[in-house]
Amino acid sequence: MLSTMTAPRLSPPLTPPSLEAAMKVGILANPKHARTMRAYARLVEILNRDRITYRSATTTQHWPGTEQTSRLLDWGAELIVVLGGDGTLRVCAPVLAAAQMPVLIIPTGTANVLARHLGIRSTASALGLAEAHLGSQPVLSCDVPVNEADCFTATGPRREHFVSLAGVGGDARAISGRTQLPAALRLGILGYAYGASQALFAPLLKARLDDPHVASPQFDGTTGTEVWSVMASKTARPAGPIPVFAHAEVGAGEFEFLAVELRTTQAGGRLCEWAQIGWDCANRRPTAHSSMHYWRGTELSISVEAPAPVQLDGDLIGDCRRLDLRAGTTALTVLTPN
């Protein structure tokens, strides 16, 4: 029987800034979506009204946020506001965690998985949280570990970080399919639904899993098997409203892993399998289907016979022959609704 998912682990309320002090707020904005700039304009109104000093930086394709975040910290920011989605936060997370800098997320990205998981469900609610904190009202915070991923590509190993979700195979193909849509149609569930529909019939991967912990007794990944995807998650709903991971928790010290071992490559049989898996997940029984293999741990190495796409927090990393995942030992301090 599945246990009820626990609430995010909350830290004591942050001490609100004093309006008499020279509060400095750094803003990192991803201008990809028009709603980012609308939220930015509203945030600036709040800051100007309360006479709070701020400095802004925007991300670009070649400068996705690490350098800008470091400069905001060097400037003396006491709070960083991130206007963007999971990918924007992923890039700047290691720098912010190392600096132990409080972070406020204003979710203006495509899926906003982490923000939704923490109860920040709209830009309006995030701006209300900003008003409360900057207006000297105490707000809660959550410690969110920043996890590590070593991606072994054709050009060599590459160290990346992620917060909510990592995967190799079919789930990364679903994200790749979403990017083929016109930009206006990529937002939210619609874009992911389209990408998923393109990935449902993706070829299976010959994969080997090396886990220092005891894996699922139903699934021996050490000898190699054919899978549609292997994922590591810290959120129950990585895309859309359907719960896929029953025990995933963003503040936990371990991942919930999932290997999807589909039984057939035939279109009709594959569609029937997905329909049953979807039904089980919608009824909060994701472990009920024999193709869904779950276990928990802090590390996992995934090796595939042929290069396969990898995604981290919804960002396509490229085709990899191996993906090594480790639960984070540093954490973001993210402001959350009370």
TrEMBL record:
Transmembrane segments: none annotated. InterPro entries: ATP-NAD_kinase_N, Diacylglycerol_kinase_cat_dom, NAD/diacylglycerol_kinase_sf. One of its GO terms (molecular function) is kinase activity. It holds the Pfam family DAGK_cat. Residues 20-151 form the DAGKc domain. It comes from the Bacteria. This is DAGKc domain-containing protein.
